[in-house]
Structures are given as C-alpha cells and as structure tokens.
Specification:
The protein is mostly helical. The chain has one domain. It has helices at about 10-40, 45-60, 70-75, 80-95, 100-115, 145-160. It is elongated and about 55 Å long.
Length: about 160
Amino acid sequence: MCLHEDIGDELKNQVSQAHDLNEITKGLHLAYSHLINERHYSNNVFLDQYELWRRNLYSNLIDLNSLSSIAIQQTTGIESNSVLTFMQSIITLIQNHQSSIGDFSALIVIQEVRIKGKKARLRIGAEREFEQGTSKSVSHLNYRDANTRTIINDIFTALNQ
C-alpha cells in the first residue's frame, strides 16, 4: 500500500482518511439497503452482508482516531454542515464500538429525509418503488480506486524524474 512509501505525512494522512471513510461508507450503504428492504418488504436480505462488514470493520481501518468531520472537511472540501454532522455522529459511534444497524438506523433515516425530503425511501408513508432485494445505493467508493491509483502513480513518476 502507498502508506509504506515516502509520500509525505500529509498525503499519507489523506490517503488513510479516504480509505477509512470508504470502509465506513460501505457499511452505511449496506445499512441503508437493509433498512429500506426491511421497511418495505420485511426482509433481511442485506443483513448478512452488513454483519460481515461489521465483523471486519476494525481490522480494515487504518487510523480511525484521525478521522473526524473536520478532517473530512479539510480533505474533501465538503461544506454541508448536515453531512459533516452526520459523518461525525457515525464516526463517534464507530469509535465507541457502536456499529449495529440499530445504532445507525435513526441517523440514516434523519439524514436521508434531510437530503431527499419527500423522495426519501425511509420516511413514513414512502411508497415502494423498487424490487425486493435491490440495493438502492452504491456498495462503496471503489469506482474511485482506479482514478486514485492513476493519480498516485503520476505523482510517483513525477517525483522520480
């Protein structure tokens, strides 16, 4: 992993935070998919995937203690207070080893309603507009990994010239 390379402390910290945020986001997407399928179809189709994520979470994280809403804001440039507050709440729960679906569910519902309003799938009275067992979110941020590798390789190439 690039954290073992001489890329500077600031870049290492940003890569570590991006990785850990990605790991946390995987679980949030699984929790969200579970919650909407449970609410609309009374099934637990995503619960096993979520529990597998949860069992492996802490061993997959690099430096959870360096992750905070301030660090996320500085690294990503996110300005939305509601997103930063939501993420800080999630990070705090995880730092306190509270990562059950129940621990996250109220925060996820509130955040979805805040962002999507009447289109929120978890709001009371929301209509079911998807098939049972369908994930209504991305599974994780892996689509960025190829771009990240390209950028880091370009940086290494430039530094070695």
